[in-house]
Design goal:
This protein is mainly α. It has helices spanning 2-22, 41-73, 96-124, 129-162, 177-209, and strands at residues 76-82, 87-91.
Length: 212
């Protein structure tokens, strides 16, 4: 009896000891899955809004540059009186500065047309830094050209309006009023394009500031 009871106790103790060991669970933590970080919705909307405003500014710069080039390129006036050997007329191609102005404004207008597809890409993909950086660089070049052409033409127009007594340059706008009005309008349009390019560069810099 004692042997049977001792063997029963041994079997029971072995069953009791084997239970927890068999049911022991692994405490190794599971690896957390990597979750992609999505851009903030507020930043996304801001960049898309800047991209839409960018294309609006480009259309405005295109209109200003084309208007300036067309106005200066068609400027000219012939006085109603003439002599046997001379006919008094003024045209933009009489002055190399005005010729330079027309060429530069035409180049700038052509660049703006070519930049429109890149601006549309920035609307579709607001966080794409490559097209925005390219536009920023090319806009800076266009701004430099526009500023140079506008400043040079403005100096000639101011001289035509006021003259220069020190060098005996007469104010030709007293005789060629229509020509000077057209040239002045073209200069105003070119400075409008300069202002729009400044805004384009500013908005491009803001878009690149928080680029992911």
């Amino acid at each position: 009896m004692k042997n049977a009871e001792s063997s029963a106790i041994n079997v029971a103790s072995e069953t009791t000891n084997s239970g927890p060991i068999g049911k022991k669970k692994s405490t190794t933590p599971l690896l957390a899955a990597e979750v992609p970080i999505r851009p903030d919705r507020g930043t996304h909307r801001m960049k898309r809004g800047l991209a839409i405003f960018d294309i609006v500014l480009r259309i405005g710069a295109l209109s200003s540059a084309l208007a300036a080039a067309a106005t200066m390129g068609t400027s000219g006036q012939t006085l109603p009186f003439f002599t046997q050997f001379f006919q008094f007329e003024a045209s933009y191609d009489d002055l190399p500065t005005f010729q330079f102005f027309v060429i530069v404004m035409g180049i700038v207008a052509g660049y703006v047309v070519l930049s429109l597809p890149f601006s549309i890409v920035c609307i579709i993909r607001p966080h794409a830094a490559g097209p925005r950086l390219l536009l920023l660089i090319l806009d800076s070049v266009a701004l430099a050209l526009s500023t140079a052409a506008a400043g040079a033409a403005a100096a000639v127009v101011a001289l035509a309006h006021s003259g220069n007594s020190s060098t005996n340059w007469l104010a030709v706008c007293n005789q060629f009023g229509d020509f000077c009005q057209q040239a002045s309008g073209a200069v105003v349009g070119s400075f409008a394009a300069v202002l729009l390019f400044l805004l384009l560069i500013l908005f491009s810099a803001l878009s690149l500031k928080n680029a992911h």
